[in-house]
Task: structure prediction
Amino acid sequence: MFRIFGATLLLSLREIRRHLLRSFLTTLGIIIGVAAVITMVTLGKGVTASVQDQISSLGSNVYIIFPIRNERGNPRPFDQADVDAVANQIAGVEVAAGNVSTSATAFHNGQNWASQVEGVNSEFLKAQSIELTEGRPFTSAEESAGQNVCLIGPKVVEAIFVPGTSPLGEEMRLDSVSCTVVGVLEERGQGGGGSDEDNTVMMPLKTVQRRFTGSDDIQFFVVKYDASYSSSGIQTSLIDLLRERRLLQEGQDNDFNIIDTAQVNQALGAATGALTAMVAVIAGISLLVGGIGIMNIMLVSVTERTREIGIRLAIGALAKEVQLQFLTEAVVLCCLGGLVGIALAFGMSFGLASAIDVPFLFDPMINILSFLFSAVMGIIFGYYPARRASKLDPIEALRHE
Result:
């Protein structure tokens, strides 16, 4: 059996080599189909991972609460008392921390750089899982006194500090406010709101309120909760408490919004996954078109080689051997097309992932499945031409010109 299969495989490869251009054009549909499916799935995984990373930068098991406009007019900001009430009065809340931000120009060493200034405290860093590559976070004394100390992002370091030197302990200026660098933030990339998290300078909340915004308002605050508690229960308690503190009557709409990062992550992951699957299915249609092309060329090959088939049958070849030969040719064509498609998809996926700035996530499983599917396509679309060849009458076949 193995000898018959080996001989059939050699005959198939010889026939493919005899018509290289035709074989290539025949497999083009399979090549494009496999390459398109793998590329779309790979890019889809990269986009999903990129989106999830951006959402994860907001922290896990975190609510983000911010004021919105209602029938009363402009959004009414929060204050520190609101944040403290949430931290102290709702079971399951681990951390509640406010944030206020504004734009400023950073100056150091004769260089200037447009950046974002955020007023935060160490609880905010904890809630959003923000790490430092150098230095330390703010101390309680620095936060309470509103001292001029800062944590700087890697892009700020690159823009205004001397390369290869540590910025720790250096004095820099934000507009007219001087501050001492006590830490360097870990690279975080683009944030969930589309802002560049690496181009930021963080200072104690009171410092930014006093020196930049001139008010005690808090633009938004984050709430990190214990995952063992019911997320919906904590959210209901949050709404009730904030409505009470903001004197909202029954029937009035909330003048604040609550975003649950876990739900956003799940929703975006599901949406991008569904979109990837839909695009992959559309790309897979070209595989069917390629399979039809295989069937067409194999039928042409049967017609061209009718006399050869008649000679083989006349000298003792079995019908199943003729069928195996043509079926093997179809499968080999599809497998070669699948291999070329996989190689093409690897290059396209890597290039496109770099172009749109998403991770390149090579998935061996989708490549293996695409190759196997191309082989199955060869069996499905090669069966009818192979069956037709095996059913030829030897006498009629020998008469064929």
